[in-house]
Design brief:
Length: 163
């Protein structure tokens, strides 16, 4: 087994089914995988047994992923640990926020197979490369804003005629 795969990954995912899929894929490829199912548990794991890399979901119980990322990157003891956000939040503002807080990459779960996630983890650990975001290498600053309309911005002839 190659030496590079003796690294410890902290997988932070509250969906038990998805966590099991990612854990299996990473473990089968020689990684030691610790699981955390909420933000508080993630911080506890990171502090007691610092990993080589963290795969971090954003929508979590107790403490969201952005908060976890901010705390980890704000602490010099953990700031060098690469964090790859693994989320289904795909808005450009979420991606920009993740990178601004120090994420090494941003993977949209629905766009990546577990094998592709494994390859991104390997690339970050081996090369220090930033993972492709949402199947592209476009930096978040170059992603066009996808401004969503609020209900007050949506034109509806029926509503407009009642006002």
């Amino acid at each position: 087994m190659p030496e590079q795969h003796t690294k410890r990954i902290l997988l932070v995912e509250d969906d038990v089914f998805l966590a099991e899929i990612y854990q299996t894929k990473l473990s089968e490829n020689g990684f030691t995988v610790d699981l955390a199912h909420d933000g508080e548990e993630a911080l506890e794991h990171a502090r007691t047994n610092p990993p080589s890399l963290i795969l971090l979901d954003l929508i979590l119980p107790k403490r969201n992923g952005f908060s976890v990322l901010e705390e980890l990157k704000g602490d010099p003891t953990f700031s060098a640990i690469p964090v790859i956000i693994l989320s289904n939040l795909g808005e450009s503002r979420d991606m920009e926020r993740g990178h601004a807080l120090g994420a090494a990459g941003y993977i949209i779960k629905a766009h990546f197979t577990p094998t592709e996630v494994l390859h991104e983890v390997q690339r970050v650990l081996e090369d220090g490369a930033t993972p492709a975001m949402a199947k592209s290498s476009i930096p978040p600053s170059e992603i066009p804003s996808s401004k969503s309309q609020t209900s007050s911005e949506v034109s509806d002839p029926l509503l407009d005629s009642k006002q």
